[in-house]
Amino acid sequence: MSASLLEIVDLGDGEIVLQRADDDSEPLLTIRFSDESRIYLMDNGMEVAKAMIQAGIQAAAALAEQTENASGSAGASRVLH
Q1: 1, 9, 53, 62 - which has most CB atoms within 10 Å?
Q2: Which contacts qualify for 9-13: CB closer than 8 Å, 24 or more apart?
Q3: Closest C-alpha to 12, from 63, 46, 51, 55
Q4: 24 Cβ partners below 8 Å, 6+ apart?
Q5: pLDDT value for 4
Q6: Mean predicted confidence (pLDDT) in 38-45
Q7: Which pTM does this prediction carry?
Q8: Is 59 in a helix, a strand, or coil?
Q9: Strand ranges across the sheet with 6-10
């Protein structure tokens, strides 16, 4: 996967997307807040979405590291429930 600049965009209709800045293709990630959630969050939806994206990236990196470490040990298997 090639490196590209990513941007987080608030579409104004309750959706916040993560997309490549230099590409018009489908967003990589879409976060949609319900009307009730948007009222609860007030004007903080973008900050919550940023925190969600950051947590997801950190979790993916941790899982990749675990997989890499596990592949070094013989017969290691991983079960997700």
Answers
A1: 53
A2: 10/45, 10/46, 10/49
A3: 46
A4: none
A5: 79
A6: 90
A7: 0.72
A8: helix
A9: 6-10, 15-20, 29-32
